[in-house]
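Take the subject:
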Amino acid sequence: MTGPTGPASRFVDSIATGEFAAARARLGAFPLDDLRRPLPLRYRPTASVGEPPAPVPATANAVGSGSIGRALLELDSGKTSCVALLDDALRAIDHRDGELNAVVELLTGPARAGAEALDAELADGRPLRPLHGIPVTVKDVIDVGGVATRCGSEAYHDLPLVDAEGVARLRAAGAVVLAKVTTHEFALGVTSPQSRNPFDPTRIPGGSSGGSAIAVATGMGLGSLGTDTRASIRVPAALSGVVGLKPTFGRVPTTGVVSLSWTMDHVAPMATTVSDAARLLAVLLDDPSVLPTEEEPAVGLAAMLGRGLRVGVPSAAFAGTDPDIAAAVTAVVDGLAARGHDPVALATPSAADLDDANAIGLLISRTEAASFHRRIGTDLDRCWVEIADQLRAAGSIAAVDYLDAQRARATLADRFRALFVDHDVLVMPTTPVVAPPGDAFAEYLMVLSRNAIPWSLVGFPAISIPCGRSADGLPMGVQLVAAPGEDALLVAAGRVVEAVVAGA
């Protein structure tokens, strides 16, 4: 698939000669707390503050809300079948994909065979699996055995023999892989400009997991598996009106994923509700503690914490935000306060912290990407202009800058982790703007990811939840962040926020 080339010169000037130089300048001025601190060869976030909540055992009928939850309940009662769920998804693809360009390769034959086999299991009286018959899509940087992985690029083509670990876990839980879906080339951007927003096809869906967001928003699957290195699950979730749930770094294996940045890549799910995303995440983590087991979100949270949420609201994350988004997220914060939770305005992360995190994340991710693509011999002349430009420019970043960026990352991680001594979650806008026009995609690379990058950089779990529509009818997202390892708490808090948005 050929990428966009229209705004190439504008993009080259702003990224290659501008953003990288600005990032190196910020890095040079960054104050390191401990110059003697050793660098790990592979990044791991520091353990969470305090004792994590005790695991909650999975139950056969945990929370029926959301498309996946309802489908499982209807399968259990015989009201639907796995083949019927698949056919619903295929009809959605037939209806919308020609306009939105989400599907890279449709796997109808294998998917139907899988759905029929899963229906046969139920007919034989075998128990329902955790994702029994649920049709899912997979971002095209993640391997599906026997299906080409193309990474949205004419410069890459691989035919893997086996599934990526995340795909294998979904299949073992009963999910039916229906399609590979679009990505910003090599996942090196947050716009997916070759695809279109399901709420306004003149606009982008967000990226790099843009196809995943479109598929979930339109019913082309009930869930999707994507990746998030800088912002690539949460930005498309916010712009396309779905839930994107990035776990703690390192908890979901990246085996079988074409690397963007080996110290920042996360494998993560998208779904229509927090409960549905949690179902997918529980399988990916092999950890039932993230499964909500109470229909009433506040009940589940109270059982976990024994009190209300302590909510930190970083003021800097609202700077420059569209008024509609700022108002929607402020309404969420006010709604939490009205329900007995405790929001407090925070000066950290500051505007400088956000800018530093963006600069550091840009240097680390693009340097690691350049190293990877040099090693595999990617022909940059066959890449999109903006991708080739980023990779060529990143190849000139000095090793000492990369290592200094890793040291600065550790300092930021300590600073951000300290926030969770007194707060359970942070709440802020996911993106400062709604989905931009498709012909202006190149102008929004750094803007869209500003509030999301810090949490991928330090590996903390984060979730984007829809929080209404703008005056133009475009989706908006609210982002929650928790301490590393507190994925179950993040899910519980997310369900409470979802109920606040719904007015429950």
The domain at 8-502 is CATH 3.90.1300.10 (Amidase signature (AS) enzymes). The chain is about 40% helix and 10% strand. The first strand starts at residue 103 and ends at 106. Residues 252 and 285 are 6 Å apart (CA to CA).
